[in-house]
TrEMBL record:
One Pfam family this sequence matches: Amidase
Protein name: Aspartyl-tRNA(Asn)/glutamyl-tRNA(Gln) amidotransferase subunit A
Family: Belongs to the amidase family.
Signal peptide: 1-45
InterPro entries reported for this sequence: Amidase, Amidase_dom, AS_sf, TAT_signal
Low complexity composition-biased segments: 219-229
Keyword rRNA-binding applies: no
Domain Amidase: 93-376
Gene Ontology MF, one: glutaminyl-tRNA synthase (glutamine-hydrolyzing) activity
UniProt biased composition (Basic and acidic residues): 553-565
Record keywords: Ligase, Signal
Stretch list, region Disordered: 204-229, 513-565
C-alpha cells in the first residue's frame, strides 16, 4: 500500500445520510426566490480521514523523462515535486508557459487577458516565501467569470465589459493563498452559455487538438480554460458548470475535469448563471491534479450558504493516489461501476472506445462493472422541458437590463428571453420534479451501483451531484474521446479513486496535441546546465486577446440556445 493510506477505511459516500441531502436540496430549490438562506446540514458519520496536517506526501511523485525535458509537460504533482526539492523555480515555469502563450495563443485564443509581468512577480515573491504545499508556484488559468480584483472580469459579455471587481472570488483567493499563480483570464462562452465566442457570436477559442479546424467543438463555456491546459499554456485551470461546461471541454480536449457536489466549492465572486446549478471546479491533466486543485478550492465560506453544514473535505489527494497490491493496480475501495442502457450501443468509434474502457475497468481488482436500470420516468424527468427550469434563474437578476436593452446580451439573448417568459407554475413544477428525480437517483440508481457512467452531464448538474470527466481514447481523426462518471453526494473521493486506478493502467491522459504551425519555442529543461536563447514571442506585460480571427465562423442566437448549458 501507499503512504498515508488511512483514507482506505471508507469513502465519503458511505458516511452520508442521503435523506438529509435530499432535504437540503429541496430547501435550496425553494430558496431561489429568497436569496441567501440557512440550509439544513447534511447528516454524516465522522469521516475516517480528512486532509492530513502539514504536507501530504501523496501529492508528490516521480517525474517522467519527457516532463524533465520540457517543463510545460509537467503535471501539478510533478512540478510540485521539483519545486519542493529546489530543482525548479516557479519563475522558470511561468517563463516556459509565457513562451507558449506568446507563440501559440493567437491561434488557440484560449486567453482574453495574460498578466505576464504580474505572474512573474508572483513567482519571484514565492521564491523567498515559506513553502505552501503542492500548488506553490503552479501557474493557473482562471475562467473570466471568476472575480479577480487586479483584472477585469467580463464573463465575455457586453454587460460586464468594463467591470473590475473589488475582490477575488473565494475560489481564486483559496488557490492563490495555496501558492497558485494567476497567468491570466480565459475566453469563455458569453455569460457562460456556449463555446467561447465574442459576445456577438464570432468563434474564438479552438480545440487544442485541431487548431486549424474551428468546427471541432472545444467543449462548453469553459473551453478557453480547457484549451489553455491542453495546449500546455497553463498547468491547470478552473471553470464553471451549469450544464456540462467542465465535463464537456475536458472530454473534448483529453483532460480530467471534476464538477463537485453543489456547495463543495464556494460560488461567491462568480458571475451567476443558475443559483441552483452553478458549480465551480478544476480542469486538470489527470486525477491527482484534479484532487490537488479541488482540495485547495473546497471548503466553507460564510459568504455562500451553500457551503455551510456540509461534511468535511476528505483527503482527496490520497484518494487520487493509485493503489498497488503486489505488482497490480487495484481499486482503493470495492466499487460497483454502473453501466446505463445503450452506453456501448452502436458501431461508432465512441462506442468502441467505451467498450474498451469497460474491459480495462473490469480488469482492475476491486472494480465490478454492472448493468443498471434507470429509475422510473427517467426520460420525462430528464427531458428538455424539465431541464429548462434553469432558465428563469439566469433571467431574474438581469431583468432590468432585459427590459432596457436586449442587445446587451449579444448572441446569448434567446436563453434570457426564454427564462423571462417561463410561467411560475411551470417553474415550481420543474423544481418539484428535480427533487423527485434526486430521490429516485439516490434510492433506485445508487442502490445498484456506487458510481454510474453517463453519456450526458444532465441530470447530475440539475440535482447537484458530482461528476468526473476523463479521457478514454481517440477517434480516427485524432480527436479525444472521453466519458463521465457520476457519483453520490460528496463522492468526489470515490470518483477520483476510480479515475486514478484507470489512469494507472492506461496512458490516454499523458498524450498531448501537436503544436500549431509556426515558430516553436525551445523547450525549457529542468537541467540547469542547458541554457537557451530568450524566445522573442514570449508574452510580456498585460496582454488582452487579439481580435477574433476571421474565417472561424459564428454562432447565431438559435444555435446558442440549442447548445446552451
Amino acid at each position: 500500500m501507499n503512504p498515508v493510506d488511512s483514507v482506505d477505511s471508507q469513502p465519503t459516500d458511505r458516511t452520508i445520510d442521503r435523506r438529509s441531502f435530499v432535504n437540503r436540496f429541496a430547501v435550496l430549490a425553494a430558496a431561489t426566490s429568497l436569496g441567501a438562506v440557512a440550509l439544513p446540514a447534511v447528516a454524516h458519520a465522522a469521516p475516517p480521514a480528512v486532509v492530513p496536517a502539514g504536507i501530504n506526501p501523496n501529492a508528490y511523485g516521480d517525474v517522467r523523462p519527457e516532463a524533465l525535458a520540457d517543463i510545460t509537460e509537467l503535471t501539478i504533482a510533478e512540478a510540485a515535486s521539483l519545486i519542493r526539492q529546489g530543482r525548479l523555480s516557479a519563475e522558470l515555469l511561468v517563463e516556459a508557459y509565457l513562451d507558449r502563450i506568446g507563440a501559440f495563443d493567437a491561434d488557440y485564443q484560449a486567453f482574453n487577458l495574460v498578466a505576464a509581468d504580474d505572474a512573474l512577480a508572483s513567482a519571484r515573491a514565492l521564491a523567498g516565501a515559506a513553502y505552501k504545499g503542492p500548488l506553490h508556484g503552479i501557474p493557473l488559468a482562471i475562467k473570466d467569470n471568476y472575480y479577480t480584483r487586479a483584472y477585469p472580469t467580463t464573463a465575455n459579455s457586453y454587460i460586464f465589459k468594463d467591470f473590475t471587481p473589488p475582490f477575488d472570488a473565494t475560489a481564486v483567493s483559496k488557490l492563490t493563498g495555496a501558492g497558485g499563480i494567476v497567468l491570466g483570464k480565459t475566453q469563455m462562452g458569453p455569460l457562460a452559455t456556449t463555446r467561447a465566442t465574442t459576445p456577438d457570436g464570432r468563434i474564438t477559442t479552438v480545440n487544442a487538438w485541431t487548431p486549424a479546424d474551428p468546427r471541432t467543438n472545444p467543449g462548453g463555456s469553459s473551453s478557453g480554460s480547457a484549451t489553455a491546459v491542453a495546449g500546455r499554456m497553463a498547468t491547470s485551470s478552473v471553470g464553471t458548470q451549469t450544464g456540462g461546461s467542465i465535463t464537456a471541454p475536458s472530454n473534448a480536449q483529453n483532460l480530467t475535469g471534476l464538477k463537485p457536489t453543489m456547495g463543495r466549492v464556494s460560488l461567491y465572486g462568480i458571475i451567476p448563471l443558475s443559483y441552483t446549478r452553478d458549480h465551480p471546479g478544476p480542469l486538470a491533466r489527470d486525477a491527482k491534479d484534479a484532487a490537488i486543485m479541488l482540495g485547495a478550492m473546497a471548503g466553507e465560506d460564510p459568504n455562500d450558504p451553500r457551503t455551510l453544514g456540509l461534511p468535511p473535505v476528505p483527503d482527496l489527494i490520497t484518494a487520487a493516489t493509485p493503489v498497488k497490491r503486489g505488482n497490480k493496480v487495484a481499486m482503493r475501495w470495492g466499487t460497483r461501476v454502473g453501466v446505463i442502457p445503450d452506453f456501448t450501443a452502436g458501431s461508432s468509434e465512441t462506442a468502441a472506445a467505451r467498450k474498451a474502457f469497460l474491459d480495462k475497468l473490469a480488469g482492475i481488482e476491486g472494480i465490478q462493472v454492472v448493468d443498471v436500470r434507470l429509475p422510473e420516468d427517467w426520460d420525462t424527468l430528464t427531458s428538455t422541458a424539465f431541464n429548462n427550469v434553469r432558465l428563469p434563474e439566469r433571467s431574474e437578476p438581469f431583468l432590468p437590463i432585459l427590459r432596457k436593452d436586449l442587445r446587451s446580451f449579444g448572441v446569448s439573448v434567446t436563453g434570457w428571453l426564454q427564462g423571462s417568459m417561463l410561467g411560475a407554475t411551470e417553474y415550481v413544477l420543474g423544481q418539484r420534479a428535480k427533487v423527485l428525480l434526486l430521490e429516485r437517483v439516490l434510492d433506485d440508481l445508487f442502490e445498484q451501483c456506487d458510481v454510474v457512467l453517463q453519456t450526458s452531464p444532465n441530470p447530475f448538474d440539475a440535482i447537484g451531484l458530482p461528476e468526473l470527466a476523463l479521457p478514454i481514447g481517440f477517434d480516427s481523426a485524432g480527436v479525444p474521446v472521453g466519458t463521465i462518471l457520476g457519483g453520490q453526494p460528496f463522492a468526489e473521493d470515490r470518483l477520483l479513486a476510480v479515475a486514478a486506478a484507470y489512469q494507472a493502467v492506461t496512458d490516454w491522459h499523458l498524450r498531448r496535441p501537436a503544436n500549431p504551425a509556426g515558430e516553436v519555442p525551445e523547450p525549457i529543461s529542468v537541467d540547469p546546465s542547458k541554457s537557451r536563447k530568450p524566445f522573442a514571442k514570449s508574452a510580456r506585460g498585460r496582454v488582452s486577446a487579439a481580435p477574433a480571427p476571421q474565417g472561424r465562423g459564428r454562432l447565431e442566437a438559435h444555435e446558442v440556445a440549442e447548445l446552451s448549458q
